[in-house]
Specification:
Its EC number is 3.6.1.55. Helix content is 14%, strand content 29%. It is an alpha+beta fold. It binds 8-OXO-guanosine-5'-triphosphate and magnesium ion (MG).
Length: 147
């Protein structure tokens, strides 16, 4: 049988590379999607769409520089888990890497608000539906946090 989407039609697959940056206190960085973008106001992991012909790791390093102003070495990215979520108009496939080392100061380069959050508190921040299933993997690897 042919591979079909939820409606029985063809599915548009969108590949997004994302990172969970972890600080020395075991907090995870999330960023608020700016007004005007799809899913505005929701908190997400930094990252973005993989361009045609681009390696996902190169995409993530590029997006972390563009969005946060930091330099990340590929050796400092470890695969953690992935999201596969059926949105109305596309199928999101989003590998999530964990990163504990980077160069530079993390800043919201695109005007987005940032928050460093203990994994056990991530549910206090509204996230895209694709992201909720990723939280247990973060709690497993980092711990829920003290408070
Ligand atoms: N970066 C990121 N995108 C996510 C997450 N969860 C999630 O559903 N998405 C979706 O994945 C897609 C990636 O979008 P993006 O806006 O980050 O892509 P981008 O950085 O390349 O921006 P652009 O397309 O505006 O240039 C969006 O449809 C977004 O809603 C997440 O945790 N992080
Ligand atoms: Mg992005």
């Amino acid at each position: 049988m042919a591979i079909t989407g939820r409606e029985g039609g063809r599915v548009k697959l969108v590949l997004v590379a994302a990172a969970a940056l972890i600080d020395a206190d075991g907090r995870v960085l999330i960023a608020e999607r700016p007004a005007g973008k799809q899913l505005a106001g929701l908190w997400e992991f930094p990252g973005g769409k993989v361009e045609p012909g681009e390696r996902p790791e190169d995409c993530l390093i590029r997006e972390l520089a563009e969005e946060l102003g930091i330099t990340v070495k590929e050796a400092c990215l470890a695969p953690l888990t992935f999201a596969s979520h059926t949105y109305e108009t596309f199928q999101l496939l989003m590998p999530l890497w964990i990163c504990r080392r980077w160069e530079g100061l993390v800043q919201g380069r695109e005007g987005q608000r940032l928050a460093w959050v203990r994994p056990g508190k991530l549910r206090d921040y509204p996230m895209p539906p694709a992201d909720e299933p990723l939280i247990p993997a973060l709690i497993d690897i980092v711990g829920a946090g003290r408070d």
